[in-house]
Specification:
5 strands; disordered C terminus; 129 residues; SnoaL-like domain-containing protein
């Protein structure tokens, strides 16, 4: 699958598809894995993730919509993939049909930032003391 193929497949399945498509257009990295997992198994896992993220006050765009789509897909075997924005500030999970020719669902969010991460030198240089 090419970047252009994936861009074309990301339509309006969920509210996260537009931002995921824009990330790909901007040069985001992506991967689609070979393994197949039944959609309803993904639905169970991501339903639990949705409940945990809501308890912590985190929002994952398109997650509730994705869970609904995965439940409706039942036993259909799906491939999964991920998209990481160029600046690594956001990520997306994509669910594709078994032949990777159609996106079934997509969800994603900004990565949390922490004070520790902000204070970690990125260049490997040691702070002056």
């Amino acid at each position: 699958m090419t970047r252009d193929d994936l861009i074309t497949m990301l339509r309006d399945q969920t509210s996260a598809c537009g931002p995921a498509r824009n990330a790909l257009i901007a040069g985001a990295d992506f991967v689609v894995w070979d393994g197949l997992v039944p959609a309803n198994r993904h639905a169970g896992v991501f339903r639990r993730r949705m409940h945990h993220s809501l308890k912590r006050g985190h929002t994952i765009g398109g997650l509730a919509e994705s869970v609904g789509l995965l439940v409706r897909a039942g036993e259909e075997p799906l491939r999964t993939g991920s998209i990481d924005t160029v600046d690594r500030s956001s990520w997306f999970i994509i669910f594709l049909n078994s032949t990777a020719t159609a996106v079934v669902a997509c969800c994603g969010a900004r990565r949390p930032t922490t004070v520790e991460a902000a204070n970690t030198p990125q260049s490997g240089a040691q702070p002056r003391g």
